[in-house]
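Onboarding guide, step 5: your first structure request.
Type a short instruction followed by the sequence, for example:

Predict the 3D structure of this protein.
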Amino acid sequence: MAGARTSLDSAETRKVGASRLPESNLPVRERILSRGRSVLQAESTAILDALERLNESFVTAVRMIAGCKGRICVTGVGKAGLIGAKIQATLASTGTLAYSIHPVDALHGDLGMIHSDDVVVAFSKSGSSELVELLPRLKAIGCKIILLTAKSDSAAATQADVVLDIGQTPEACPLGLAPSSSTAAMLAMGDALALTVMELKEVQPEQYAAYHPGGALGRYLMKAGDIMRPEKECPKVRDTATLAECYEAILKAPKRAGAASIVDAAGKLVGIVTHGDFFRLFRAPRPAIDQSVCDVMTKSPKRVRIDSRVNDALQLMRQFAIDELPVVDAEERLVGVIDIQDLISRGFSVFDEA
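The system replies with structure tokens like these:
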């Protein structure tokens, strides 16, 4: 660290950074921290300014999006367009059909993908970009338009049905030019729109998981029924079977299996026999493979309901060192098995706590 500080405070660094960092007699390290704090302060001020401007227009915009019979079309140019793309992704991932379109592409043929029952959410700090040419055409199609802008009296604003004013606080950029405070306020306002719509639609955790099947969020909310091996793929024998029949069922399973579930005449889970049980049995002086599985099985084994979260099943498997966990329905009938190898292949960790 000492070497790094010496390098940072070198004559060359001071010369290059002097025009870009707050002028001060402080060391360069302190000036860097000062600039960082000033950026965060400027952007937080912009968000708070947008908060103060929140009014009935926001209510109208939320209701317009929530009640949309088509899809939400998000558009914008430059940095504002990039913020719009993020909001489009948030809308889509929280249960609202949404897509992005660039204004220039729209003016060169992509207008054909926009329908009259779509609601357009446009992003523009100045309200004087290519949107000025696009918005009248969207109105002609029949779309409702929501505009997020820093200029509520701009040319684009005159074409919008609803204007959400983010304010005109100074940019955090040292030159006062690069979009920073304005994009922070746009992002916050867009998130407020998307997440308020999400709450209005009463999106549940299970629905949210369905939109995120491949990531950690999806894994956290998955149910046992989503990941289990179905009953037909799991070794299973009646409680009247012999150990030989039980072992044969394990060998015939379509996937590698380390245990067989034991069920009664009604299909209810009553026990489990594992490879470990067979290993201990075969080491006995006189193993009797024609004896009943009921003499060897673990009675009333650990199990989870089909609607339990996978993380709950994983915790149980960790706690009791279980490789295969039966899954049952509300009547305790066997419906499947969760295998530890399937969990690992889907990205669950058998070591870390949930």
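Each response can be followed by summary notes, for example: Residues 222-345 form a domain with the CBS-domain fold (CATH 3.10.580.10).
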